[in-house]
Amino acid sequence: RANPEGVSAALRGSADQAVATGEMLSAEALYDQAEVQTTSAVEHANRLLGWANLAIAHGGWDRTHNLINRAARTGAESDIIGANCSRRKADLALRSGDPISAISHSNRARMQFDALGFPAAAAQCLRLSGDAEAMQGANKNAFLMYRQATKEQVQCGDLPGFRITMRHVCALLESLGDTQ
Can you tell me the distance from the alpha carbon of 11 to that of 116, in angstroms, rounded to the nearest whole number? Predict the structure, then answer.
């Protein structure tokens, strides 16, 4: 017989991938299916964070904020849920045009991920801080954040994260007129 938590986690993971690839309708259906299987508070909080990702993709800032706060309350006993909530708050702040809050939340998330032993997630927070620095025109700081992120991504073997960070570096260089 199937483990409901395992099924829920697999469905949520598939939904997260659907959000990442822009398949919003598929993501919604998969999150709905995961809800039926969810039994633990931590898995419920993870599902709420998935819904928050979907809300961010749709530009629903208020809904995203509410979902992140619900996830934080629901998964309060889990340090990784706290780190993920901080990361989502950083992403929300960046996308809603508040680079100062994005950097603050991203730094908090990075420290949490570092303490929990998730170097790839911590490096992703550095990249987000670089994006926030670039958003406010602090390009030197952005390049410093990107450099630190790529260094950590190489050290922990996060090739997909490294590639994403390099795309962000190239986009910033292009925006500055450096196309070589």
Answer: 25
